[in-house]
Amino acid sequence: MDHPTSTRRAQRQQRRCSANPLLALPAVQRVRMLPLPVRLALGELLTELELDCAHRAQHSWAKHKAPVAAYFVAVATFTRHLRQRAVLPDHPACLRRATGDPPTAKKPVDPGTDRSAREDVRNPVLALPAVARLRDLPAPARATLAEALRAFQAECARLAQRDWAERRCASAALHKAAAVYAGHIRRAMIRPAARENVTGWKATPTPTVAAPSRRLLLPRVFA
């Protein structure tokens, strides 16, 4: 008998996959009609592609390249949805991400722990000195800024849903990333101690680069 948590997780994954407009394409319908050996080989290829995109997204995220990271996250998500719902819908490996580890092998998380204090949420932007200075603002100013960030997060989430419905995948990924950033900054600002020593990334001051010297270009004289 499956655990209720695993059942709910599978149901959430099915709803998310079903909302992906790419799965309604005729080409995806034809993939479901392929023989099982072909679909198994295609599933292995999609798994490797998902892992590669996930690693590239982590690398881009660590270097503060949010649009690039959002792009790779979107590609990894579409790849996982295609593998789970079209290529191998009944395969046991499709009930989890392409990590090689079952969901039960993950580090247990206390349900009472705030998500912004969990070690599996690692937004390097929250380690910037500018975010730390937000915590020193007066309480009324922090409350006003938190409400503005909440409104910005809701608007970006609404735009992401609209772009997703219109199959504008790149724009939807960018709006979703903006909503995530706004939510993380708001939670870190209103809970000062929630993000200490959990990002795994140290903010370093931007080095000052001297401007290149402007040299006078004289016309060349050819003999």
Notable traits:
disordered C terminus, mainly alpha, 2 domains, single chain, 223 residues, elongated, 7 helices
What is the topological layout?
Layout: H1 4-18, H2 26-31, H3 36-62, H4 66-87, H5 129-134, H6 139-165, H7 169-190
Helix pairs in contact: 1-4, 3-4, 4-7, 6-7
Multimeric status of the protein: single chain
Q: Helix/strand/pairing class, anyone?
A: mainly alpha
The succession of helices and strands, N to C, reads: HHHHHHH
Biggest sheet character: none
Radius of gyration: 23 Å
* Mean model confidence by pLDDT: 67
> What's the number of helices?
7
Low-confidence stretches: 97-109, 111-121, 194-223
Into which percent range does the helicity of residues fall? 55-70%
DSSP E strands, number = 0
Q: What form results from the Cα inertia axes? A: elongated
Report the span from N to C terminus: 91 Å
Question: How many domains comprise the coordinates?
Answer: 2
Strand % is under 5%
Task: Explain this structure.
The protein has 223 residues and is mainly alpha-helical. It has two domains: 98 residues, no CATH class; 84 residues. Helix content is 56%, strand content 0%. It contains seven helices and no strands. The C terminus is likely disordered.
What is shown here, in short?
Residues 107-119 have a biased composition (Basic and acidic residues). The protein is 56% helix and 0% strand.
